[in-house]
Design a protein that fits this description.
Belongs to the TRAFAC class myosin-kinesin ATPase superfamily. Kinesin family. KIN-8 subfamily. Residues 349-384 form a coiled coil. This is Kinesin-like protein. The chain is 39% helix and 23% strand. The protein is of the alpha/beta class. Helix 1 runs parallel beside helix 4 (87-94), helix 7 runs antiparallel to helix 8 (200-212) and helix 13 packs antiparallel against helix 15. The two termini are 39 Å apart. The protein binds adenosine-5'-diphosphate and magnesium ion (MG). Residues 120-121, 258 line the site of magnesium ion.
Length: 384
């Protein structure tokens, strides 16, 4: 199984070269729920070759017309996971490599993106029987640390926090909102619990407790329940000898993020960021899109300051770090519109990334061409 997973990971790697400072985009389809089946839902998504995603059926004629107007029904990602994909496979293909690089002092982040009910929390947190990416990452981290040193050289701290309505809360010790401060290490939430972790069982229990503290989970149907972002920060500190044999401290940070439901942040292509901002859309989610956009385009200024989420993720998004997006989708034709929006968004992110890297290779003269600028502006708008 491990060999299979490694081969799959290598296939992803080979196709895309190194993961240095780039975004990989994955899609995960969840199984049809019993309630959906009982209500007569049909499956409208098919995944082929672990890469290609096809939208196969439409809820109604309007969806069909919309689909034609957009860009067709076929999407390709770095990997796409069918509904039978077990948690550990999702983990090993998307995140295992980031865990490895955190142990080398680099930062990374994994986001689950998608509409409410599409499987974000299942992917990130999972259940006791089927733990998700957060738990598997920590488990793997402990295993790798044991293999590596076993001498207590590494210290792992966990923090679990929530951004809800632009308010930051500590999920491990709920109380008053936390204030974000900028210090030498970057932006920190003052007073945030740093939990020293020793074992995985303990971590799962802690995360589940934390999740119950989310402004959200018990009342899934509640209108506000989908608007909270949960962030697990895993900080690994260790000591190494530098070139002149001095002992120095290194820190690697992995952020694992269960984002708010994307249903309202996904507007149609024509809308500008400004009109989106006026429409009571999750500000942190929009700001995240803008930052990723600016990053993939190689912009000098990245607008981290626009939201609490992006401030918190400043050191996990830019610079020498790895970013993974997992777009979660439902198979049901009743969720057709959301699924299409999510796929479309993920596809755009991927495309702009390609354009951005091509752009950086082009010479300066070409970059100044007006067409190029128009094209770039258009893509920017589209992603936003
Ligand atoms: P979200 O966090 O995106 O709102 P959830 O993760 O809570 O969605 O998923 C909605 C429901 O679907 C939950 O009951 C969850 O257990 C189930 N579910 C989601 N993804 C899967 C999966 N891959 N396999 C089995 N059940 C899943
Ligand atoms: Mg959720």
């Amino acid at each position: 199984k491990i060999v299979q997973d490694t081969e799959r990971l290598e296939a992803v790697m080979n196709k895309n070269g190194t993961r240095e400072s780039r975004i990989l985009v994955f899609v995960r389809l969840r199984p049809m729920a019993k309630k959906e089946k009982d209500a007569g839902s049909r499956c409208c998504v098919r995944i082929v070759n672990r890469k290609d995603v096809y939208l196969t059926e439409f809820a109604n004629e309007n969806d069909y017309l919309r689909l034609k107007r957009l860009r067709g029904r076929h999407f390709t990602f770095d990997a796409s996971f069918p509904d039978s994909t077990p948690q550990h496979e999702v983990y090993s293909v998307t995140t295992a490599e980031l865990v490895e690089s955190v142990l080398q002092g680099r930062n990374g982040s994994v986001f689950c993106y998608g509409a409410t009910g599409a499987g974000k929390t299942y992917t990130m947190l999972g259940t006791v029987e089927n733990p998700g990416v957060m738990v598997l990452a920590i488990k793997d981290l402990f295993t790798k640390i044991r293999q590596r040193s076993g001498d207590g050289n590494h210290v792992v701290h966990l923090s679990y926090l929530e951004v809800y309505n632009e308010t930051v809360r500590d999920l491990l010790s709920p109380g008053r909102p936390l204030v974000l401060r900028e210090d030498k290490q970057g932006i920190v939430a003052a007073g945030l619990t740093q939990y020293r972790a020793y074992s995985t069982d303990e971590v799962m229990a802690m995360l589940q407790r934390g999740n119950q503290n989310r402004t959200t989970e018990p009342t899934r149907v509640n209108e506000t329940s989908s608007r909270s972002h949960a962030i697990l920060q895993v900080v690994v500190e260790y000591r190494v000898k530098d070139a002149s044999m001095n002992i120095v401290n290194r820190v690697g940070k992995l952020s694992l993020i269960d984002l708010a439901g994307s249903e309202r942040a996904l507007a149609t292509d024509q809308r500008t960021l400004r009109s989106l901002e006026g429409a009571n859309i999750n500000r942190s989610l929009l700001a995240l899109s803008s930052c990723i956009n600016a990053l993939v385009e190689g912009k000098k200024h990245i607008p981290y300051r626009n939201s609490k989420l992006t401030q918190l993720l400043k050191d996990s998004l830019g610079g020498a770090c790895n970013t993974v997006m997992i777009a979660n989708i439902s198979p049901s034709n009743a969720s057709f519109g959301e699924t299409q929006n999510t796929l479309h968004w993920a596809d755009r992110a991927k495309e702009i990334r390609t354009k951005a890297s091509e752009a950086s290779e082009a010479n300066e003269e070409i970059q100044r061409l007006p067409e190029f600028e128009t094209d770039q502006a258009k893509l920017l708008l589209e992603l936003q």
